[in-house]
Amino acid sequence: MDSTATTATDDPKQNLNQVTDSIHRRWASSTRSTSPSLPSMNTLVLELDNMTKLAENCNIQVPMEVLNYNPDEFTGDVLNSCIAKNQITKGTTDAFKSLRRHLLEELEQAFPDEVEAYREICATSAAVSCI
């Protein structure tokens, strides 16, 4: 028998988490084998019974929005949010590259020798390209 079935701690939420983990492990092991053993199934039933008893003492409020939220919609929303943030970051990066290029052009007109030396230093080092 699994130790989580007989473990008694003061925190019902922790107990419920342990039982849920145990049930998941039992379910995973029973689906891997072609014929689940009777002791394994009995332990699974005991864990489910234990979870029911622990749930009575555990008052968890779940908002209806969470229950009504479609996981596919959530995944789509997260991906769309990531794409939007990525586009903002790319725009910012492109703007800085453009500014850098523009500043180098202006500096080259004012200080051609210094910009040439700067480009030579960049070419010989492992630094970011000097554009």
TrEMBL record:
Compartment(s): Nucleus
Keywords of this entry: Activator, Nucleus, Transcription, Transcription regulation
Main location: nucleus
Complex and partners: Component of the Mediator complex.
Family: Belongs to the Mediator complex subunit 10 family.
Biological function: Component of the Mediator complex, a coactivator involved in the regulated transcription of nearly all RNA polymerase II-dependent genes. Mediator functions as a bridge to convey information from gene-specific regulatory proteins to the basal RNA polymerase II transcription machinery. Mediator is recruited to promoters by direct interactions with regulatory proteins and serves as a scaffold for the assembly of a functional preinitiation complex with RNA polymerase II and the general transcription factors.
Protein name, UniProt field: Mediator of RNA polymerase II transcription subunit 10
Organism annotation: Ilex paraguariensis (yerba mate)
Gene: MED10
